[in-house]
Amino acid sequence: MKRTTLTRRYQLPALHILSAPSLSAEENFSVFGPCSRLHGHDYQLEVTVSGSIDADSGLLMNRDELDRLVRKSLLDPYRGRNLSDYFPHTTGEALALEFHRILSSQLDSSVELDSITLRETAKNSFIVQQEARSQ
Question: What is the pTM of this model?
Answer without folding.
Answer: 0.91
